[in-house]
Amino acid sequence: MKQNKNRRKNIFAAVVTILLLFSAGGGLFAQSASEISKKSADIIDFVSMEMDLTIIIRDARGSERVRQLTMSSGLFNGVNKTLIRFMAPSDVKGTALLIYDYQDKEDDMWIYMPALKKVRRIISSERGKSFMGSEFTNADMSKPNHIDFNYTLIGSATYEGKECWVVEAEGKDQNIKRSNGYSKSISYIEKDTYLCYKTEYYNMAGDLHRIRITSDYKNVTKSSYFAYSTTMENVKNGRISEMKVNKMDTGKNFREDMFSPNALQ
Predict the structure, then answer these.
(1) DSSP character for 137?
(2) Which CATH number is 67's domain given?
(3) Nearest in space to 174 (alpha carbons), one of 133, 125, 126
(4) Of 159, 171, 247, 245, which is closest to residue 195 (Cα–Cα)?
(5) Residue 16 maps to a domain
């Protein structure tokens, strides 16, 4: 009798322990914040594509500037290379940005300005600055290196009717934070699809600075998606920039020499 009673106590204790593990960490076998963030980044990762885009820049008074550009990307020897060219209006036409997106180190970036007739490397301290006068930054034009951040699963929330994980990503040191232009971000990642629909960016003082809203996802390959509409709002100055994809072609075969700094001119 006593033996059965002790056995029941042991079973009860084991059940309580398991429940505590699940409630504390979202489940003993639950995904970590880092894993969730990595899957969210990987689901929009594809090797080769070409896009026509429009960027609309609006200030707090409602005045508007529109820019047309193309973006081409390819994978060469494990490095994702992206070329962005501005097609209109005339004051930015011919400007080009080249990005080498590495997995384990800071990206390389170069810009060509027609007025200067010169290719210039974008240094680390310039990565977090405005991308051609928009509320997007140069760093926003490439994927952040996953290993540069510490991830925390804050909890869950409903955003636009979607059940989301809320994941915080904080730069591991001050150099990483300054290079990316923000101290931390908080992302809302849908649980069913791993698609990110909202990201809040906080400045070096820890204040909310920008909010990115991503929508109109389309399935561009069997296993990857791309957002055809991305809006960045600067909550400090009221400016809003919207990037729209007008056309996308995947599976393109580009020559690697097209993605050379010497080819920007």
Answers:
(1) B
(2) 2.50.20.10
(3) 125
(4) 159
(5) no
Report how far residue 237's alpha carbon sits from residue 214's, in angstroms, rounded to the nearest whole number.
20
Closest CA to 201 of 214, 189, 185, 187: 185
CA nearest neighbour of 160 among 185, 124, 196: 196
Question: What band does 30 get if pLDDT is binned at 50, 70 and 90?
Answer: low
Cα-Cα-Cα-Cα dihedral of 158, 160, 163, 164, to 10°? Answer: -80
Which one-letter amino acid corresponds to residue 197?
A: Y
Domain that holds residue 101: 34-263
Alpha carbon 104 to chain centroid, angstroms: 16
Per-residue pLDDT tens digits for 63-86: 999 999 999 999 999 999 999 999
What's the burial of 44, exposed, middle or buried (CB within 10 Å: 0-12/13-18/19+)? middle
pTM value is: 0.86
Tell whether 26 is covered by a domain: no
As a residue count, the chain comes to 265
> Rounded to a whole number, what is the distance in angstroms from the first to the last CA of the chain?
88
Spatial separation of the C-alpha atoms in residues 147 and 104, rounded to whole Å: 7
Q: What is the C-alpha separation between 21 and 183, in angstroms, rounded?
A: 31
For residue 153 the two structure tokens come to 């699963």
Does some domain include residue 87? yes
Please state, in angstroms and rounded to a whole number, the distance separating the CA atoms of residues 185 and 200: 5
**Domain count of the fold of the chain:** 1
- Domain assignment present for residue 68? The answer is yes
Residue of higher predicted confidence among 46 and 87: 87
Closest CA to 219 of 188, 193, 253: 193
**What's the one-letter identity of residue 234?**
N
- In angstroms, the Cα distances linking 259 to 47, 74, 114, 164, 255 are 14, 9, 18, 37, 8
